């Protein structure tokens, strides 16, 4: 029996007036890449200062403070910790925000087409959701034809929609298990959908690597049919991913335990530079017969941060089930935000649906990933070159935007105080803030403090 067999076909939900089933002419160019420089960083007059951190841990006063959940039925005393959306943004080797040339080209086409600004349908720009799904699941995925997919307000909106769907239609516990640690927003997103959040073991502080045994134990000891959130690639914040072999094992355990996997894929292509390789876990689970939930973001891999282009999908049993799931997704979306923004999704759809532009985009994603990988290598080389006796192999084995250095809070404090290098107390640095120019100073600062 399919887990979604009890999801009923809902009544039709009418689209906002004027919604189109096909994209029509439009144009607008918005740029909103938040430059998030902390107060402390801003106030520092050292010309060599480097910001590799997150707004929150450094800012002495938060931009706002919410003492308890705004939802009457929500979690008590939930400390909402607003983190700057600009924190995890890619920077080029000059430390500047980067707009991909393929995105500029797609945007030019969208503008030249003189499309109007009519509403999209509830599930977004028509050409977008299935194209996004194909990117994740693969062009020849056995799941094609039974994927309920919708555009969402980037990855965050996809997770929130998935959370709401689980709250309504997951027959088992209203609970989700997320890794320790996880992206700071995960807990808040799921709790806001009134799901209980439990954590499973993931990161081993001592090895600065994956606690695979702990993770396996937690997968095995969770009750049958539990919902598990996995970072599909480039785990945030640790940069530590399971190997393909480990993913296979995780998938098998999930099958045995009938767990429901929810993949958060915020960095496809951005992790290794290869979109197919980064989709390994998702595709392995599909090959193994799982019916997954998936959130996708085009914030990082297309640099569309402020455009809020994302997708959510659920793999169903067959086309009939997908129809029912689809209807329930619409029922959730319509009163929540009615329909998603169009501009970013049009850009993304233009890239995904044009083979030439797609190839260009893939090369540009690889360029971003390669720069990150190169900075990791450089940092490690420089630390070793300075004579550091520590094992820095984790710097290059971790993947994606963030790196856990393994520095203790007092060491981080000293690096900041003495060398004007800013990052979070847990020792996490944003690798995209490293450039050819500042990597030397960074290595020296870490070496002088850590040895
Ligand atoms: N999931 C993870 C793990 C992330 O790191 C992020 C962004 O940093 C997101 C989801 C969602 O990002 P967005 O809502 O900008 O697509």
TrEMBL record:
Q: Which residues form the Aminotransferase class I/classII large domain?
A: 86-446
Name the residues that span the membrane. Answer: none
Q: What is its EC number?
A: 2.6.1.1
Give a GO molecular function annotation for the protein. Answer: L-aspartate:2-oxoglutarate aminotransferase activity
Q: What keywords is this UniProt entry annotated with? A: Aminotransferase, Pyridoxal phosphate, Transferase
Which GO terms of type biological process are on file? L-aspartate catabolic process
Keyword Manganese attached: no
Catalytic activity, reaction form: L-aspartate + 2-oxoglutarate = oxaloacetate + L-glutamate
Report the top EC class in one word: transferase
Superkingdom of origin organism: Eukaryota
Recorded GO CC terms: mitochondrion
Cofactor(s) recorded for this entry are: pyridoxal 5'-phosphate
Note, other: In eukaryotes there are cytoplasmic, mitochondrial and chloroplastic isozymes.
| Similarity section | Belongs to the class-I pyridoxal-phosphate-dependent aminotransferase family.
Assembly and interaction partners: Homodimer.
Output the NCBIfam families linked to this UniProt entry. PRK09257.1
Protein name as catalogued: Aspartate aminotransferase
Q: What organism, scientifically named, is this protein from?
A: Hapsidospora chrysogenum (strain ATCC 11550 / CBS 779.69 / DSM 880 / IAM 14645 / JCM 23072 / IMI 49137)
């Amino acid at each position: 029996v399919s887990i979604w067999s009890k999801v009923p076909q809902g009544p039709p939900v009418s689209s906002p007036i004027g919604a189109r089933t096909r994209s029509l002419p439009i144009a607008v160019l918005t740029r909103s890449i938040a430059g998030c420089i902390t107060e402390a960083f801003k106030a520092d007059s050292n010309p060599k200062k480097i910001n590799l951190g997150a707004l929150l841990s450094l800012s002495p006063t938060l931009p706002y403070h919410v003492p308890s959940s705004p939802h009457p039925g929500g979690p008590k005393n939930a400390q909402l910790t607003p983190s700057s959306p600009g924190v995890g943004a890619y920077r080029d080797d000059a430390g500047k925000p980067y707009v991909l040339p393929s995105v500029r080209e797609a945007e030019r086409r969208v503008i030249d087409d003189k499309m109007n600004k009519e509403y999209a349908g509830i599930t977004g720009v028509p050409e977008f959701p299935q194209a996004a799904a194909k990117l994740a699941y693969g062009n020849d995925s056995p799941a094609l034809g039974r994927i309920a997919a919708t555009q969402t307000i980037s990855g965050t909106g996809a997770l929130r929609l998935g959370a709401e769907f689980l709250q309504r239609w997951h027959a088992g516990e209203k609970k989700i298990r997320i890794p320790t640690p996880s992206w700071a927003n995960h807990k808040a997103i799921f709790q806001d959908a009134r799901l209980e959040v439990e954590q499973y073991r993931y990161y081993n502080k001592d090895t600065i690597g994956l606690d695979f045994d702990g993770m396996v134990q937690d997968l095995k000891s969770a009750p049958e049919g539990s919902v598990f959130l996995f970072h599909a690639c480039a785990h945030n914040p640790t940069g530590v991913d399971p190997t393909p072999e480990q993913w296979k094992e995780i998938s098998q355990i999930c099958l045995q335990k009938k767990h429901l996997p929810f993949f958060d894929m915020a960095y496809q292509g951005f992790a290794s530079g290869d979109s197919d390789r980064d989709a390994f876990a998702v595709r392995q689970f599909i090959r193994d017969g799982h019916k997954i939930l998936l959130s996708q973001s085009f914030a990082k891999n297309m640099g569309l941060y402020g455009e809020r282009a994302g997708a959510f999908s659920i793999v169903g049993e067959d086309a009939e089930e997908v129809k029912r799931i689809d209807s329930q997704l619409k029922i959730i979306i319509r009163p929540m935000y009615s329909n998603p923004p169009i501009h970013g999704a049009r850009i993304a759809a233009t890239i995904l649906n044009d083979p030439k532009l797609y190839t260009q985009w893939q090369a540009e994603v690889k360029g971003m990933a390669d720069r990150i990988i190169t900075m990791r290598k450089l940092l490690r080389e420089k630390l070793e070159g300075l004579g550091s006796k520590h094992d820095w192999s984790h710097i290059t084995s971790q993947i994606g935007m963030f790196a856990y250095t393994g520095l203790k809070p007092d060491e981080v404090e000293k690096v900041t105080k003495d060398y004007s290098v800013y990052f979070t107390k847990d020792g996490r640095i944003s690798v995209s803030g490293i450039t050819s120019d500042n990597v030397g100073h960074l290595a020296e600062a870490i070496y002088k403090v850590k040895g």
